[in-house]
Amino acid sequence: GLIQEISQSATRAQAEMRALLLQLRPLTLQNESLSQALASLASELQSRQTIQCHVDLDQASLPKNIENQLFRIAQEGLSNVLRHAEATQVRISLKMSEETRRVLLVIEDDGKGFILDNIPQSSIGIRSIRERSTLIGGTAQWLSVLGQGTKLEIRVPISAETDSKEG
Question: Nearest CA to 150 among 62, 63, 66, 86?
Answer without folding.
Answer: 86
